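TEACHING EXERCISE
Course module: macromolecular assemblies
Task: Read the component lines below, then compare them to the predicted structure of the full complex.
Student: A.B.
Group: 4
Components provided:
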Amino acid sequence: MNKQINLRQRNFVIGLIIIGLMIVGLFGLRTARAFKKFHGHRPPPPFAAQHIETDVELIRDWMTLPYISITYGLPPDLLYETLNIPPDGAEKKSLRQLNHEYYPNVSGTVLEKVKAAILSYQSTLTATPPATSPPESNP
Amino acid sequence: MSDYLLTQIINYGAPLFGLILFLAALGIPLPASILLVAAGAFSQQGFLDWPSIAIVGLLGAVAGDAISFGMGFYARNWVSKHVEGSPAWRNAQQSFDSRAGLAIYLTRFLITALAVPTNLIAGGSGIKFRRFMAYDSLGEFTWIILYGGLGYIFGSQWELVSDFISNFGGLILGVAILGVGSWLGLRRMRSVENEDVNKKIPET
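Instructor-supplied answer key:
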């Protein structure tokens, strides 16, 4: 009886060590990989008010149109016009839900259209010459 | 699930966030840490109000912990009926009692996967509710400031932080399991050695 308990205890301890090693190995690798990605990025300037995002690769299909508009500093109606979607009722829906509703046969259409609209808007901003003060007349 | 909840947190803000942390503290598998980092980022972007998120989140998490402590407390009669008198159970209970504060505090933000089991054990072990709440509130406060703060600092890049944190949490859990396994193994080896020595003494 005592031997049986000892055997069970030993198996339990060995099992714990093996499971622990497996978890450490798996998550150790994943942590190292995540750290590499994390380390290569710098956070935006700390406590920067009105920080406007420019990288469209950060757009995910859980985001809503108002969220994207504010994060990327777009005019509020731009994305609705691009997608040809009425704002009423759509403002709380994610890009995935909108895609499912308006483009049920092609996945990712809304996401791609939104990215393209932002890039096009950003290019118009950079193309516009900066406002300069009128040349002063020399006396 | 995470994606759906992220959309709803943008739409409904602090009340939904508090409810999610409450349910997660009860043991419902919801990605609370990821949502906390995201909520910090949404606050930095101006979608949520950081003080409201922090207060409502803290209240939700602490209330959930208090209820799961209560579940452990009311289940202790059932547990003691099944393991009463077992020296292993008594040992485990004594070693938990001596380190309960540290265990409660660390499982709030470092080994979050063990938070709910710790609440249940704490409730069943008979430690005072006031003592549990003190360590629990401190731990949840650390969790909210640390994870939410990282989300706030990294803003739109919060996914990088969240990815790192969730993997690091898994790594710490693995280290804890390995540590407990090694500790039990060493203890067992020592007791086997002692038994051998005791057996040899009468022979000499």
